[in-house]
Amino acid sequence: MNVIQVEHIRKRFGNKDALADVSFSIPKGEIFGFLGPSGSGKTTLIKILTAQLHPTSGQARVLDQPAEMMHHSVQKMRFGILTDNSGLYERLTIEENLELYRQLYALPKSSISKVLQFVNLSEERNKRVNLLSKGMRQRVMLACAIIHEPELLFLDEPTSALDPVNSAHIYKGLRYLHEKGTTIFLTTHDMAEAELLCNRVAILYQGQIQTIGSPKELKRQHRENVVCVDLINGEAYELPIDEGTADRIADWMKRGLIDRLATKEPSLGDIFIKMTGSELL
Amino acid sequence: MSISLKRVRAIFVKDYKEFSRNYAVSIILIFPIIFALLLRGTDPSLTGVFGLVLNSSFVILTTFAQACLIAEEKERNTLRSLMMTPATTMDVLIGKSTLVFAMSAVVLAIATYIFGYEPVNIWVFVAVIILSIILYTAAGTICGLFSKTLLEASLSIIPVAIVFTGAPGGALLVKDFPIFKVLEYVPSSQLVNLLNIRNIGYTTGDLLKPLLVTLAWTIVFIIVAVVLYQRRLKDE
């Protein structure tokens, strides 16, 4: 069953297409990464999928309903969202912020302790938000977005500008949610993050999906047809995969000369550059 | 459109906690009381003075506080976060207006007591005051929704202050400027007209006119606030 189904979505601002004929689907339980540089249309798509923006044309279905129905309370109970536009009440403590969300989602009191444990902020629960570091605030915002254990979670660059420790906390949380069956729609321009978390990724550039697939698949598709061989004497070779190379490698192996043998796989960043000619910044 | 009292209460409690820790805004609660204390010695027949106390309090306390509450939510992106929760438009608007309504009602009741004003008909007076608080709260919501920052919100109430607080004064110039006749239909002028009614020689119509005019303004402002809020739910 597809949790998100996007068909030929186009969004035009003035005379510029932010999204041009975007189609894809996300099955239940998947972590789907939407990759692209700033301004490529990632946030626009999240806004369309959460009924904050109307598409110029095309249609999208989210959680079995047309995307424009996502502003209804019943649908809002089913998804969580963390974007640049998320905010916290500065004069309230972490717990008071979460208490508001708990009541808005009509959850039991235990949900606060549970989610605080989940984002590793149990000890800081009585700290005022205006005293928190950026990483902690991001974790509190994530806690607000997932306190109701949504079926679908939209995350718009959740770890941008976070240090590795805070990012690791968030990754841990997302993996846990994934294990519980939450479908996660993640936009990022961090290729390592996408590779680490996502079951599938789509690369968006100039409003169009350039390629889509699992990181493994994409790497295989864009793999160069060469094999890298490092010999123990320090020599290194990049050889085409053919019969001659096979014989040569077999010979080196017999003589115990091979230090490292690997296929040459591109990173997701390499694939992006290859497909768009642009750096991911 | 559904309303959940639990959600309304949650937003009210959150606003109360935030407001009580925001000394820069919460200090405005004392202004109407100070006005009443300063002006209570004036001739009781000068009901226009009490009208000025009430009308300026509506703007300084009710509209300003509401505009600040809404604009601060916008500035810090919490309003958008709230919009993404199951809280409906009415949950958010009622929840966010309840605190300002309650504060205004209590503070104006104290100010009225201090000033010593005794209305000819307590029920009509209370009804007009309640409608006015709702009206000025809606005006504050509109100002807050139009503003991107707290500073903008502070400036956005100036037109409200000029038009609404100044209307009773402007209506006095109707002989020289006939176009100012329209100012007689501004709720603040109607409130002053109601306060001016003496114990003898008034008709039911004299009492009902301010009530109905204020009610009409209140309905219009509520509709504008709701429509504007719903437009703010979207980015286009």
TrEMBL record, chain A:
It comes from the Bacteria. Keywords: ATP-binding, Nucleotide-binding, Transport. This is ABC transporter ATP-binding protein. The keyword S-adenosyl-L-methionine does not apply. The keyword Plastid does not apply. Residues 4-231 form the ABC transporter domain. GO terms for molecular function: ATP binding. InterPro entries: AAA+_ATPase (IPR003593), ABC_transporter-like_ATP-bd (IPR003439), ABC_transporter-like_CS (IPR017871), ABC_transporter_ATP-binding (IPR050763), P-loop_NTPase (IPR027417).
From TrEMBL, chain B:
It is a multi-pass membrane protein. InterPro entries: ABC2_TM. It is found in: Membrane. The chain crosses the membrane at residues 21-39, 45-71, 92-116, 122-146, 153-174, 211-229. Keywords: Membrane, Transmembrane, Transmembrane helix. The keyword Repeat does not apply. Residues 52-226 form the ABC-2 type transporter transmembrane domain. Pfam families: ABC2_membrane_3. It comes from the Bacteria. This is ABC transporter permease.
